[in-house]
Structure formats: structure tokens, C-alpha cells
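Case study 2.
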Amino acid sequence: MLGEVDEQQLKQWSTAAEAGNEQAQLSLGQHYLKLAEIGKDPQTTAKLAVTFLIKSSKQGNEDATQLLTNCLDKELGQYF
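Prediction:
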């Protein structure tokens, strides 16, 4: 996921993610994680990243699970 993500792509991912598409959930998680890491509203974007990564991980997406482990290690997007 290099480069900018436009609004249309975000809408497509959001629609697919809400319909349960694990790859779209992963893509949104990665997008929000990147925003958090560069300091764009890090508290909100990190929580959004974790939310979508959890959804993807629950469906067996190993990439999402690994990113969640990294978030835990970095204390990003924690709800407690």
C-alpha cells in the first residue's frame, strides 16, 4: 500500500469491509495504521486500524494478525 489512497478507493474498501470482505478490512487497517504512524490523528486512526485488523484477523487473515501483534508491541490503538 504505497502512495496516496483516494476517496473512491476508501469508499470501495469501506463498502466491502462492512460486507465482511477480509482483504478490504486488511486494506483499511493498513491505511489507518499508516496514518497513525505518520501522526495524522494517531489516537483515532490507530483505533480504526485495530478495529479493521481484528475483523480481518478473525476471518483467518494472517497478515492482519501479524499487524495486530505489531500494534500490541508498539501500544498502538489499544482500547484500555
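Residues 50 and 77 are 6 Å apart (CA to CA).
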